[in-house]
Design a protein that fits this description.
The chain is about 25% helix and about 15% strand. It is an alpha/beta fold and about 1000 residues long. The N and C termini lie far apart (about 85 Å). The structure holds iron/sulfur cluster.
Length: about 1000
C-alpha cells in the first residue's frame, strides 16, 4: 500500500505545499461567503472544530481508509472529572449509534482553552470500562465478605431514607456523614446536608492541601493562591506544578507560555520531577527545609531594601504587629521596617544552606532572580512540602511573604487571592446552616484546623467519641487514600461504629468492599455540576453535564431522568440527592423537602433543569445577555458551549474603592476595618469582604480604610494582609503568629542514624487516584510505583540494581517494593508515588480487577495485619478486547497502609513524610507485601494528639473555632460555642 499524494513516505509531508493548498481552498470557500470546512487532514487537526459545526461534525473513518467513510458527530461539551482542574471536554457523540466515540478538548473553555492532559480523553475508558459498577448493589453476606446482590434504586433509596429519617427525628443528627473524595462540584452536597440540618460534610482536604491552604489563609483570609503565570517574569514552584500540580493543565500551559516569553522557573522539589527538568533552577532540598529557604530569600529582600515598601506600608497589618508585639517602638512604619529587618536577620543563606543542603551561593543567585521579578513574581505551594511536614503550612506562609514583600499581590504576573479568580453562583434554594457541631470532623483539639480531621475518623470512633448511623462515601476511597488504611478497615467492618456504609461510586474500590450499598454514580460525562477555578486573572464558570442527555435533547427528545441515557442504571448525584431528600421527608413535615422543590411548580420535585436554569438565569452576571444574543436561554447556552467567562483582567480587587451605596451607618474598627449597615449586593462578581464577621452592632464588613479611602481590602480580621496573625496569637500559638520556620518531624535531628525520609506524596501525571484502575490507556502508561533511591544509598544498603526488591520499614510496619536507582533523588531520601498498589480481596469474584488491581490475601494475626498478593494482573476476556492484551503484571505497592497518622496540631494536615529504614527484602518477601500493626498506629495517633492545644484551653471567646475561618458548613452560634467540660476539650480532668 502506498501513501496518498499528500503524505509522502520517509521524507515526511511537504508541509509548505500542503499549507498553500489549504490556503487556496480556504480563500475559495470564503470568497463564496461560506465557512471553510476544516476537514480531517493532518494540518487541519491543528485547529478545533468550529462551534458553528458542532451539530454535525464530520470525520473520516481511519479504519475504512483509503475508502472515504464519513462519521457524523454531535459535539457536546462537559467538564473533565479526573482531577480538580475542571478542564473542558468535548464529547464526540455519534449521530447514528448515539454513543460517545471519544473526548477531546473544548476550545470554548476559558481555563483549559481546548487542551487536556492524558487523563481527559481517557474518560472514554471509564465510560466503556467493562468492570464498572452499573447497578445498585447491596451486600448479601457479612460486611466485607464480598457477596453482593443487585437491588433496585427504590429499594436502596427507601432503606437509606428510613435510616436517615429515624436519625433526624430522634435527634441523632451527628450520626449522618457524607465523606467526599473528589468534590467535583461547588457546594451542592453542602447544600443538601444543610437542608437536612446536619453538620455532616467531611472532605479529603486534610490529606491533600490543607497545609498549603493554611499558610495562605492566615495571610489573605483566602486559602488558595492564583498565580498569573502567563505574565510572570519569575515563577517559583514548591512542587511539580507543570506535570501534575494544582491546577495541572490550565496552569501548565500558562507556565509554558511564560517560559516562551523568557520567564525564569524556580522549582523546589527534592525529587527530579518532570517539572524540575523544565526549570531554570532545580533546588533539591532536605525535605522540610523549604520554609527556611523562603525565609532566606525574604531576608535578602529585606536587608537589601529590594521590597515594595509602599505596598507593605499600605497593605500589611504592621500597626497591629507593633501594637501587640513591639509596644516599646514608636508606631511608625520606619520603626516597623527596623523591626522587620531584625526579625529575619538570622535567616541567612548560610542558615538555609545548613538546613536544606543547597549551596548558599546558589540560594543567593536564586534570591537575586526573585528580587528582579518585582511585581511579576508568581508562586505556588500546594501539596508537596506543605503536605509532608510538621509545620508544613509555614512553607506557603513564608512563600507568600516573598510575594507580599515584592508587592506581587494581585498584579499582572503576580499572585492573586483565588477567590478573585473564581465565581460561585447562588443556588435556587439556600437552607440555613445547621444547628449542630460535628465533633468527629471538627474536634476541639484542632481549633485552627483548615479542614475536617477526616483521616482521624477511625481513631475518633475507636475513642468512643461517637458513632455513625449512616456514612456515605462519595467518589472517595478512605481505605486506600488515607494513611493507616487498615484502621479504616477495622471501623468499616464494625457495624457498631458505622451502622450503614453507602458507597456512591462509579467504580469498585478498596472501601466499597466494606459497604452495605454500592450505588453507581456517573463519570464526568454522565452527571451535572458547576465549577469555577482560579487559573488566570479572570472568572469563569464551567458546566459538567451528561452528554448523552444533552445530545438527545438537541435531537428533540424529552429526558427527565439521567438514568434514561446513562449506561446500566448509573445515576447522577444531583437527582439522587433530590430523590433521597424527598423520601426522607415525603410530606414536608421535617422542613427538608421544601429545599428540593420546584419554585416554578410548588409541590413538585426540583429538576436539574430548573436548578441550573435558575442559577444561570439569576446569578451568573452577563450570561443571560450573552445567551440572548444567540437566541438561547442561559441553560441552553451552557449546554451548548459548556463554559462562560464572567470577567477577565480583574486586577487588584483589594484596591477598589467601596461604592457609596454600599456604605450606610459606617463604623471603623481599631485596625481600620470598615463596617456597614447596608445590605450586600445580591449578585456580584466581586467577592464580598465578609469573612471576619459582623461588628458588635451587627454591621457587615465592607472594606478597610487605607490612607483615608475605604477600599475592599482582604477578608481577614484586620482587612489587610496579616503579617502578624492575631488569630494564631489569640488561639494559643503566639510563637507562630509570624511567617517562620518550624522544624519538620523528619528534620535530620529527629531521625535515627539509620533512618531516611520517604516522600510519598507525589502524583503521576497519568493517573487518577482511586479511579485509575478503570482507565486502560492510563494503566498501560503507568502501573507501578518503584521506590526512588540514590545510587550512593543503594550502594550503602547493598541494593545492587534497579528492580531489586526492598523493604521500607515505617513506624507501624513495612512495605515491599522494587528499587529504582536514580540520581533524580537526594541522598538520604527515598520517594514513592501514591497512585499504585490497588487491590481486591481473594474471593471477591464480583469485583473486576481491571488492569491495576492485584488480588490479595489480607490476614490479621497476633502480630497485626499482613497483605500478600495471590494473583497479579493478567490478560482476561471481557466486552473490551483490549483486556486480553494486558502485558504488565506489576501494579506496585499500597504504601499508605503502612503510614501512621501525623496530624499537624495547627493546620490539621496529615504530615505525610515518613522516617523509614530501607533494606534489601527478606527471603520470602514479594512485591506489594504489606505488614501493619494497628496497635502501634494507635500509639502514634496518641503521641501526635498530645501536641495539640485544645479549644477548651486556648479559645479567647468561648467558641470552638475562629468564626472567620472558612468552613463548608457554619453551624449556628449556639452550636459553635464551647461545650461544657468533656473529653478532648482541654478542660476535663
Ligand atoms: S488536567 Fe487533565 S485530568 Fe485534570 S481536568 Fe484537565 S484534562 Fe482532566
Amino acid at each position: 500500500m502506498s501513501p496518498p499524494a499528500d503524505v509522502p513516505g520517509d521524507s515526511g509531508p511537504d508541509l509548505a505545499a500542503l499549507g498553500e493548498r489549504v490556503s487556496a481552498a480556504r480563500a475559495a470557500v470564503e470568497a463564496r461567503g461560506e465557512t471553510f470546512y476544516q476537514g480531517a487532514s493532518r494540518i487541519h487537526l491543528g485547529a478545533f472544530p468550529p462551534k458553528e459545526r458542532w451539530d454535525d461534525w464530520v470525520e473520516l473513518s481511519s479504519r475504512a481508509w483509503p475508502a472515504r467513510e464519513e462519521h457524523h458527530y454531535m459535539l457536546v461539551p462537559t467538564t473533565c472529572f479526573n482531577c480538580e482542574s475542571a478542564c473542558g471536554l468535548l464529547a464526540y457523540v455519534d449521530r447514528d449509534t448515539r454513543q460517545v466515540r471519544k473526548f477531546e478538548g473544548n476550545p470554548e473553555h476559558p481555563g483549559s482553552r481546548g487542551r487536556n492532559c492524558a487523563k481527559g480523553p481517557a474518560t472514554i475508558n471509564q465510560v466503556t470500562d467493562p468492570d464498572r459498577v452499573l447497578y445498585p448493589m447491596k451486600r448479601a453476606g457479612r460486611r466485607g465478605e464480598g457477596l453482593w446482590e443487585r437491588v433496585t434504586w427504590d429499594e436502596a433509596l427507601d432503606a437509606i431514607a428510613e435510616r436517615l429519617r429515624a436519625a433526624l427525628t430522634q435527634g441523632r443528627h451527628n450520626e449522618i456523614m457524607v465523606h467526599l473524595g473528589r468534590p467535583g462540584e461547588d457546594g451542592y452536597t453542602e447544600r443538601v446536608l444543610a437542608s437536612w440540618g446536619v453538620d455532616g460534610h467531611n472532605s479529603h482536604t486534610n490529606v491533600c492541601s490543607s497545609g498549603g491552604r493554611t499558610g495562605f489563609q492566615f495571610w489573605m483570609g483566602i486559602d488558595r493562591p492564583s498565580p498569573d503565570y502567563a505574565h510572570a517574569k519569575v515563577i517559583y514552584l514548591i512542587s511539580a506544578h507543570l506535570e501534575a500540580g494544582h491546577y495541572f493543565n490550565p496552569h501548565a500551559q500558562r507556565i509554558t507560555q511564560a517560559r516562551q516569553n523568557g520567564a525564569k522557573v524556580i522549582v523546589l522539589d527534592t525529587r527530579l520531577s518532570n517539572t524540575a527538568t523544565h526549570a531554570d533552577y532545580w533546588l533539591s532540598p532536605q525535605p522540610g527545609s523549604e520554609a527556611a529557604m523562603n525565609l532566606a530569600i525574604a531576608s535578602y529582600l529585606i536587608r537589601t531594601g529590594r521590597y515594595d515598601a509602599e505596598f507593605v506600608r499600605r497593605w500589611w497589618n504592621w500597626e497591629q504587629y507593633l501594637t501587640h508585639c513591639r509596644p516599646d517602638l514608636p508606631a511608625t512604619f520606619e520603626s516597623f521596617q527596623g523591626a522587620l529587618a531584625e526579625l529575619y536577620a538570622g535567616f541567612t543563606f548560610e542558615h538555609a544552606a545548613a538546613e536544606s543542603g543547597i549551596d548558599a551561593g546558589v540560594l543567593a543567585e536564586v534570591a537575586e532572580v526573585v528580587a528582579g521579578a518585582g511585581t511579576r513574581f508568581a508562586c505556588h505551594s500546594w501539596r508537596s512540602a506543605a503536605a509532608g511536614n510538621l509545620g508544613g503550612w509555614q512553607v506557603s506562609r513564608t512563600l507568600f511573604l516573598i510575594s507580599a514583600l515584592l508587592g506581587a499581590v494581585a498584579t499582572e504576573g503576580g499572585t492573586f487571592p483565588n477567590a478573585w479568580n473564581k465565581f460561585v453562583p447562588r443556588p435556587i434554594h439556600t437552607p440555613p446552616h445547621p444547628g449542630v457541631w460535628q465533633d468527629l470532623s471538627w474536634p476541639l483539639e484542632f481549633p485552627l484546623a483548615q479542614n475536617e480531621l477526616s483521616f482521624l475518623l477511625p481513631h475518633f470512633l475507636k475513642d468512643g467519641r461517637g458513632r455513625l448511623d449512616t456514612y456515605f462515601t462519595r467518589v472517595y476511597n478512605p481505605v486506600w487514600t488515607n494513611p493507616d488504611g487498615l484502621s479504616w478497615m477495622e471501623v468499616l467492618t464494625d457495624t457498631e461504629k458505622i451502622g450503614c456504609h453507602v458507597a456512591l461510586t462509579p467504580t469498585w474500590n478498596e472501601s466499597a468492599y466494606f459497604a452495605d450499598y454500592v450505588l453507581p454514580m456517573g463519570h464526568g460525562s454522565e452527571r451535572h455540576d458547576t465549577h469555577s477555578y482560579e487559573q488566570y486573572d479572570g472568572q469563569w464558570i464551567g458546566f459538567r453535564q451528561p452528554v448523552l442527555r444533552a445530545a438527545r435533547e438537541r435531537l428533540g427528545e424529552d429526558i427527565t431522568d439521567t438514568r434514561q441515557v446513562n449506561p446500566g442504571e448509573v445515576w447522577e448525584e444531583n437527582e439522587w440527592w433530590i430523590e433521597l431528600s424527598w423520601r426522607i421527608d415525603p410530606d414536608g413535615s421535617l422542613g427538608i423537602r421544601r429545599y428540593h422543590e420546584s419554585r416554578a411548580h410548588p409541590g413538585q420535585k426540583l429538576t436539574v433543569d430548573e436548578y441550573y436554569g435558575w442559577m444561570f438565569d439569576n446569578s451568573v452576571p452577563g450570561l443571560p445577555e450573552r445567551a440572548a444574543a444567540e437566541g438561547l436561554t442561559p441553560l441552553a447556552w451552557m449546554r451548548r458551549y459548556g463554559a462562560f467567562e464572567i470577567a477577565s483582567g480583574q486586577g487588584g480587587l483589594h484596591e477598589r474603592e467601596v461604592p457609596e451605596d454600599e456604605l450606610r451607618d459606617v463604623a471603623i474598627g481599631p485596625a481600620g476595618q470598615v463596617y456597614t449597615a447596608a445590605a450586600a449586593p445580591a449578585t456580584t462578581n466581586i467577592v464580598p469582604m465578609a469573612a471576619p464577621g459582623p461588628d458588635s452592632e451587627g454591621r457587615r464588613p465592607a472594606g478597610v480604610m487605607v490612607d483615608g479611602i475605604i477600599r475592599r481590602g482582604f477578608p481577614t480580621p484586620s482587612g489587610r494582609l496579616e503579617f502578624w496573625s492575631s488569630t494564631l496569637a489569640d488561639w494559643g500559638w503566639p510563637e507562630h503568629a509570624l511567617p517562620g520556620y518550624i522544624k519538620s518531624h523528619v528534620h535530620p535531628s529527629a531521625l535515627a542514624p539509620d533512618q531516611m525520609v520517604l516522600l510519598s506524596t507525589f502524583r503521576l501525571p497519568t493517573q487518577i487516584h482511586t479511579r485509575s484502575a478503570n482507565s486502560k490507556w492510563l494503566d498501560e502508561l503507568s502501573h507501578t510505583n518503584p521506590v526512588w533511591i540514590h545510587p550512593s544509598d543503594a550502594a550503602r544498603l547493598r541494593i545492587a540494581r534497579t528492580g531489586d526488591l526492598i523493604r521500607v520499614e515505617t513506624d507501624i510496619g513495612y512495605l515491599v517494593a522494587r528499587a529504582w536507582i536514580t540520581e533524580g533523588i537526594r541522598p538520604g531520601v527515598v520517594a514513592c508515588s501514591h497512585h499504585m498498589g490497588r487491590w481486591k480481596l481473594t474471593g471477591h469474584d464480583q469485583v473486576g480487577a481491571g488492569g491495576m488491581m492485584a488480588t490479595v490475601d489480607l490476614h490479621h494475626g497476633d502480630d497485626g495485619w499482613a497483605m500478600h498478593a495471590t494473583g497479579r494482573v493478567k490478560p482476561y476476556r471481557s466486552a473490551d478486547p483490549d483486556t486480553a492484551r494486558i502485558w504488565w503484571s506489576d501494579t506496585g505497592v499500597h504504601q499508605n497502609l503502612t503510614f501512621p497518622v501525623h496530624p499537624d496540631p495547627i493546620s490539621g494536615m496529615h504530615c505525610w513524610h515518613q522516617a523509614v529504614r530501607v533494606r534489601p527484602a527478606a527471603p520470602g518477601d514479594a512485591q506489594g507485601d504489606i505488614a501493619v500493626d494497628t496497635g502501634k498506629a494507635r500509639e502514634i495517633y496518641e503521641q501526635w494528639m498530645a501536641r495539640t492545644r485544645p479549644a477548651g484551653s486556648v479559645s479567647p471567646d468561648g467558641t470552638r473555632r475562629p468564626r472567620w475561618l472558612m468552613r463548608p458548613l457554619k453551624p449556628s452560634a449556639a452550636a459553635s460555642a464551647l461545650p461544657a467540660a468533656g473529653p478532648g476539650d482541654g478542660t476535663a480532668a
